[in-house]
Amino acid sequence: MTEETLEPVETETDPEERIRELTAENRRLRKRIKQMREAAAASKKVEFSKIIFCGVSIVTILITVFSCWIIYSTMDASALAYLIPAVFAEMASATGFYYTKAKAENKIKLMNANGVQPEADNFNDF
User: Fold this and answer.
1) Distance of CA 27 to the CA centre of its chain
2) I need a labelling partner for 105 at 20 to 30 A (CA). Which of 12, 30, 87, 112 fits?
3) Is the same domain home to 32 and 53?
4) How far apart are the first and last CA of the chain?
5) What DSSP letter does each residue of 14-81 carry, written as one string?
């Protein structure tokens, strides 16, 4: 076996200077990453339609559980005739609104990704 000896490559800059340059570059990049993360965190805001949808879903679940508990404790199912259909009609309306809005937003995103300018006529058909 032969041992290969590597001779140090002569560089034009001093190694200490190169380390200082890399350290400064590292600090600059870390600061830039931190700024980008802060900007991304600030720009991520929960959409109002999602808040409405989650609120309606939670209320629907709570009313359904409460109705089941009342029916079990009173042994009277007359509340189901009016309360449950009304709650689920509201849930259906919120779901339909949310999915229609999401469909329009996705259509806009796809049009922008493909370089097509969104126009009002593009959203008339359901």
Assistant:
1) 30
2) 87
3) no
4) 77
5) -HHHHHHHHHHHHHHHHHHHHHHHHHHHHH----HHHHHHHHHHHHHHHHHHHHHHHHHHH---GGGG
DSSP code for 114: T
Tell me, yes or no, whether 24 and 56 share the same domain. Answer: no
100 and 82 together in one domain: yes
Report yes or no on 28 lying in a domain: yes
Record the tokens describing residue 118, joined without a space.
Answer: 């969104």
Q: Find how far residue 105's CA is from the centre of its chain.
A: 13
pTM score of the predicted model: 0.53
Summarised one tens digit per residue, pLDDT across range 25-52 is 999 999 999 988 888 777 777 778 888 8
